[in-house]
Amino acid sequence: MIDWLQKLGHVSLALFERLGRGGLFLMRVFSAIPSLAPRPRLVIIQLYSVGVLSMMLIVISGLNVGMVLGLQGYNTLVEFGAEESLGQVVALSLVRELGPVVAALLFAGRAGSALTAEIGLMKATEQLSGMEMMAVDPMKRVIVPRFIAAVISMPLLAAMFSAMGVLGGYFVGVGLLGVDSGAFWSQMQSKVDFYEDIMNGLVKSVVFGFVAAWIAVLVGYAAVATTEGVSRATTRTVVHTAFAVLGLDFILTALMFGSV
Amino acid sequence: MMQKRTQEIAVGVFVAVGLAALVMLAIKVSNLSAFSDQDGFEVVARFENIGGLKERAPVTVAGVRIGRVKTVIYDDKSYEALVTLSIASKHNQLPEDTSASILTAGLLGEQYIALEPGGAEMMLKSGGEIKLTQSAFILEQMVGQFLFNKAAEGTGESKATEGAVP
Fold this sequence. Notes:
The structure holds two protein chains of two kinds.
Chain A: H1 2-32, H2 40-77, H3 86-124, H4 127-133, H5 138-176, H6 181-191, H7 194-221, H8 227-256
Chain B: H1 2-29, E1 40-47, E2 58-61, E3 64-75, E4 80-88, E5 99-104, E6 111-116, E7 129-130, E8 132-134, H2 139-154, H3 158-161
Parallel strand pairs in B: 1-7, 2-6, 5-8
Antiparallel strand pairs in B: 1-4, 2-3, 3-4, 5-6
């Protein structure tokens, strides 16, 4: 019994220690942000590798998800003779949920893991220590540009995902299945609200981007400096981001749309 | 030098496409272009029963949407529902004796407020009140009344209830 309690205490202390480290790390990142202003070039390079290179994946996935939504939604709605509402179904599910969440999961797999592996390898090959030797702060030079680039990219990628999804639903619904084009858009516009739906979806994607970026750079920076440590850290980034995004999504949805 | 340039162009394209997607969502997908809540003028209306009327339900004149329901509050003093309507300011030419009724889109659809302009000279001002209101149509009450009348007819008292409309 005492052993069990000790184990519980150990686990919770370890959890709080990690949360505390993460918080302290985040504060260091924030305090280093102003030093980036004279060198925007560092962020642009990272925006390229984090954002531009993820764009193709996001666009194609968004299109596919939208097409599947169009097909599935049509098959269900047509039973009630309500296939005109297809646009509304596709747009609402994408803008409110699927856009931010799926984009964040893809982002964690595509960009988050790469960030972690890069930072972890820099640590394993002692590049970070080398920078410190040359009086270059790796925090300002390596961590913060990547963090900022990820935070900027995520909302843009989520918006692309949703927009492509709507187009995919349009192709399938109007192009293949013969839903009326005017009804598709007008039903969508009458039920999707800019502030309620699109802005809340945007807030979600900003939060997810922040969390994904934080986890990716933190796990990379804290990785054990060996080959095995880096590979573990990469896996941990994807798993932790997925858990964090899905958990946060429920909380955010309850706050935004839950009419209590 | 060339490589730096292509990289920067790619980032520029990325940001532009992301913002374009956001603008498309705002204009093409949502109702931002149709009507925004910001520039409305507000009038209030009191209803005995609002049925299932929700905030942000449409407000229409002649079937055309000109505004939204902004808030629905219960008034402790008059035991009525106090509904605030936000109407686009370009449609502020509503006579003072305009009447408001709560209708249902289709048999089971969402409820909305239909305004019917009267013939008065004076126009409704911002913050004014619509005096003539008609409560929501409650299906259960109607069905109950109808059944009651049927039962009354069955027992031979149809004379007494003849005046009542089911």
